[in-house]
Amino acid sequence: MSFFDLDIPARTAEKYGAEVLYDEPMKEHTTFRIGGACDMMIKINCEALLRDLMQCCKECGIPYYIIGRGSNVLISDNGLKGVVLLLGSDFAAAHISGNVIECQAGALLSAVCGLALDNSLTGLEFAYGIPGTVGGAVYMNAGAYGGEMKDVIQSCRYIDENGEIRTVSCDKMELGYRHSIFTDTDRCITSVSLKLENGDKGAIKERMDTLMARRKEKQPLEYPSAGSTFKRPAGDFAARLIEASNLKGLSVGGAQVSEKHSGFIVNKNGASFEDVRALIGMVKERVYSDTGVMLECEVLIME
Ligand SMILES: Cc1cc2nc3c(=O)[nH]c(=O)nc-3n(C[C@H](O)[C@H](O)[C@H](O)COP(=O)(O)OP(=O)(O)OC[C@H]3O[C@@H](n4cnc5c(N)ncnc54)[C@H](O)[C@@H]3O)c2cc1C
C-alpha cells in the first residue's frame, strides 16, 4: 500500500499499453542484487509515455526514479517510495544510419556494441562489457580502457525538467569524468546518436574480445556488484589505496571488498544495503586516515 495515489500514473501507463508492476523487488533490477520493493514500476515503451509520466508525477507530488540496467546503483532494502520509470528492454530499439547508430535509451551497451560490430563500425569497442544501458552510460559518461562515451556521442534527446523534449549536441553536454549535464537533475535521456567510423570487422572483434578477456581476468564478475565502488582519485587509483590500507577482503555481513579487485565491493553472500553502506564507510575512513585521500563513491545510492 503506497502513501501516494498511484491511480493517475497507472492510467497513463495503461493509455500507452505499458507494463505496470506493483511492489516489485528492486534487487531484480540491479546488478548488485540488492534493493527492496518499489511502490510501482512502469516499463517505459515510448518517449511520449515518459514525458506524460514525468509531468503527472510532478503535478501529483509523486517521487519518480529513472533506472536503466541498475548497474551503477545501490538501492535501500526499504525500497523506493513512488514510481520507478524503467528504461529497459521495452525501450531499446537501435538502428544504423550510415556510420551513426541511433538508440533508444534502454538499449544495452553490449547490444549496441554487437550492432556496431555487425556493421563494421569502430569506436565503441571500449564499452563492450560495461553492463548498462546507453542512457545510463551517457548520464555517467561511462568509460573504460582509454575510451569514454564522449568520444562517440553525436547528440542526444532528452526530456527536461519542464517536460520539454530537447536535443543537445555532444559539445554542449559537459561530459567529464563520470559527469554530464544530466548528473543530479530530473532530466531523462530518451535517445542517443553515436557516431562511429568505418573499420575492419576482424580488428573490431579482436579488440572487443581482448577487452572482455581483460575484464574477466581482473574483475570479480562471479559476484554481484555495481562495478568500481569509488571514483578514481586525482593521480591515483582507488584500488591501490584500498590495498595499501590492507582492506582487501574486508567484510561486513555479506558484503566484501573483493579479493580479486579491491576497487569493487561485491555482494558475496546475501549482502544487505546496510552491509554495503557500512563497508563503504569503513573503507573511506581507513583510506582517509592512512593517506589523507577522501574517496568519493561512484556507485549512486538511492533510498
Ligand atoms: C561488472 C561491472 C563493470 C562495470 N564497468 C564499468 C566500466 O568499465 N566503466 C564505467 O563507466 N562503468 C562501469 N560499470 C558501471 C555501470 O555499468 C555504468 O555506470 C553504466 O553506464 C550504468 O548504466 P545503467 O543503465 O545500469 O544505469 P543505472 O545504474 O540504472 O543508473 C545510473 C544513473 O543513471 C541514471 N540514468 C539511467 N538511465 C538514464 C536515462 N535514460 N536518463 C537519465 N538518467 C538516467 C539513473 O537515474 C542513475 O542516477 C560497471 C558495472 C558493473 C556491474
List how many beta strands DSSP finds: 19
Largest sheet: 5 strands, antiparallel
- Portion of residues in beta strands equals 25-35%
CATH architecture of the largest domain: 2-Layer Sandwich
Number of domains: 3
> How large is the count of helical segments?
7
Overall pLDDT: 97
What's the shape? globular
Determine Rg (CA atoms, Å).
Answer: 20 Å
The secondary-structure class comes to alpha+beta
CATH class of the largest domain: Alpha Beta
Order of helices and strands: HEEHEEEEEHEHEEEEEEHEHEEEHE
Verbal overview:
This protein folds into three domains: 7-89, Uridine Diphospho-n-acetylenolpyruvylglucosamine Reductase, domain 2 (2-Layer Sandwich); 92-204, Uridine Diphospho-n-acetylenolpyruvylglucosamine Reductase, domain 3 (2-Layer Sandwich); 220-302, UDP-N-acetylenolpyruvoylglucosamine reductase, C-terminal domain (Uridine Diphospho-n-acetylenolpyruvylglucosamine Reductase, domain 1, Alpha-Beta Complex). The chain has helices at 7-15, 47-60, 109-118, 134-140, 201-218, 238-244, 273-291; strands at 20-25, 37-43, 64-67, 73-75, 80-86, 94-97, 100-104, 121-122, 143-144, 147-148, 153-159, 165-169, 188-195, 197-198, 225-228, 251-252, 255-257, 264-267, 300-302. Helix content is 28%, strand content 26%. A hairpin with a 2-residue loop joins strand 6 (94-97) and strand 7 (100-104). The model has no long low-confidence stretch (mean pLDDT 97). By secondary structure, it is an alpha+beta fold. The radius of gyration is 20 Å and the shape is globular. The structure holds flavin-adenine dinucleotide (FAD). The site of flavin-adenine dinucleotide (FAD) has 32 residues, from strand 3, helix 4, strand 9, strand 13 and strand 15.
